[in-house]
Specification:
The protein is mainly alpha-helical. It contains six helices and no strands. It starts with 9 loop residues before the first helix and ends in a 14-residue tail after the last helix.
């Protein structure tokens, strides 16, 4: 379900955001140079990628990688028929929330 369909409910929004992340990973994996760069920047290897993909925050990391490079973001969004803002929205949905009890806080 494309995220621009504005799914209702938190689970539906999270599922739609996860679909965007899975599409982003496929987009990254389809290009050898992008995949090598992704693995290099994340510290993952082909052997550890599968285990990492099972982690709850993996989708947010994939989308953060896409968002870090505007030409790549625009190419991915065009390929998927998404507005680039929806990729950012999917990232925000999947990104872990700040722990209010943490000693280090995000700037407001």
């Amino acid at each position: 379900m494309p995220i621009q369909d504005k799914p209702r409910g938190l689970k539906a929004q999270r599922d739609a955001a996860q679909d965007v992340a899975v599409s982003a990973l496929a987009f990254i994996a389809a290009d050898g140079e992008r995949l090598v760069r992704f693995l290099s920047e994340t510290g993952l290897s082909p052997a550890t990628l599968r285990d990492a993909a099972a982690r709850r925050d993996f989708g947010a990391g994939v989308l953060a990688f896409i968002l870090s490079d505007e030409p790549m973001l625009l190419a991915f969004a065009a390929e998927q028929g998404l507005d680039p803002r929806h990729v950012a929205g999917a990232h925000d949905i999947l990104a872990p929330h700040a722990d209010p009890d943490a000693t280090v806080r995000r700037p407001m």
